[in-house]
Every structure is written in C-alpha cells, then in structure tokens.
Specification:
Layout lengths: L2 E3 L2 E5 L2 H8 L5 H4 L8 H6 L2 H14 L4 E6 L2 E10 L4 H4 L2 H5 L10 E9 L8 H15 L4 E4 L12 H4 L4 H6 L3 E3 L8 E5 L1
Parallel strand pairs: 5-6
Antiparallel strand pairs: 1-2, 2-3, 3-4, 4-5, 6-8, 7-8
GO molecular function: acyltransferase activity, transferring groups other than amino-acyl groups
InterPro entries: Acyl_CoA_acyltransferase, GNAT_dom
C-alpha cells in the first residue's frame, strides 16, 4: 500500500501522526475530522477535546479511519476514509439524496470525507497521493464503492479552504472516479467501483 513520490510516503495513518498534524492549529485542531460523524446537535454539544477522543476511538476500533502522507518523517497530509455508515451527516445529506444514493447501498460504500495538507506542502500533489492511498485502503478493507463529495471550482469560483477540504472534482476525476448527477451546483458525488 505504500507509495513513494518525491520523498512522500502515503499509508494508513497512525494516531500519533494525525494527532501531531492536527495539533498544529487551524480547522483540523477544532474539527478532528468528526464533522460528518455526528449530527448537528451532537456536534454543538461536543467540545474539541471530545472530537479528538472520537477520532482516537475510531483508530482504536480499527481499521484506521484514514491515510497519512509523511515527508522526511514529518506528517504533511491526511485523508479521512471510512465506511459511509460512519458518517451520518453524509448519509442524510441533500447532495447524496439528489444523487439518488441511499443508505441502502450497504456497508460496502466507503466515503472520502476530508483532506488536510499542511501549509507549505499544498499544491504539490499530496492530495492526489492521499486519494490513491485512501482508495487502496478502502478496497483492502472490503469497499465495493468509494465515494467523494468534492467541490467543482469551475462552478464555485469563490470556494475557499472551508469548501476545498472535500477535494476538487478534477482530483477525483484524475483518480478514476466518475460523477453521479446531483442537483447541487458546484458540488458533486464522485464514485469509484471495483
């Protein structure tokens, strides 16, 4: 599963690496990639420390809830990927409903929900390497279908970092994903089937 490119190693994440990457501040240190894993009321009621513990619990339960990119022994990127049923917000989302996907798709559907790339390492292809590792990780653990929910900057030119953590349509297209038609302008459901 390990991939090497320009001294970047991507593989299933280890808790200590993710903890180190997220502790650097910014949105990851507030969210801990748990936005999609809880409902709105639970999100509001859960302090940051609780979100951190929720992600750690996902690591403890296994398999790893994501993959990491490491450069010179330093974590520089993360991609969250878990079975879609682990993400109630995604399963209830209007984007998913508009694509005709449903919880009935079963446990074989995994979701790529989030990318984090450290400042100073962006625009260097790390997200593409993370996505490739996430796909391999999901298929290794029984995925039949892998979904992503990226932004299309061509239709949402003002999309900022708060939107782009989902990835972009072009990133998923380059990785072999196909778009599922939705009624959400500028947002897509992308699917890859084994």
């Amino acid at each position: 599963m390990e991939q090497n490119s320009a001294k970047i190693l991507t593989r299933p994440a280890r808790w200590a690496e993710v903890e180190g990457l997220f502790s650097g501040g910014g949105e990851p240190s507030r969210c801990w990639c748990r936005w999609f894993s809880v409902t709105g009321k639970a999100w509001e009621a859960t302090p940051v420390s609780g979100r951190r513990e929720q992600l750690k619990a996902a690591f403890d339960a296994g398999p790893e809830p994501g993959v990491i990119a490491v450069k010179d022994s330093v974590p520089v990127g993360w991609c969250a990927v878990e079975p879609r049923h682990c993400y109630p917000r995604i399963e209830r989302s209007q984007i998913l409903r508009s694509a005709g996907a449903a919880a009935a798709d079963g446990d074989g559907v995994w979701s790529v929900s989030c990318f984090v790339v450290a400042h100073g390492h962006r625009r260097g292809g790390i997200a593409g390497e993370l996505l490739a590792a996430a796909v391999e990780h999901a298929f290794t653990h029984g995925a039949r279908i892998i979904e992503g929910y990226p932004v299309d900057p061509a239709l949402r030119p003002k999309a900022g970092a708060a939107d782009l953590y989902h990835g972009t349509v072009s990133l998923f297209t380059r990785a072999g994903f196909s778009a599922v038609p939705t009624s959400a302008p500028g947002r897509a459901v992308m699917r890859l089937q084994r």
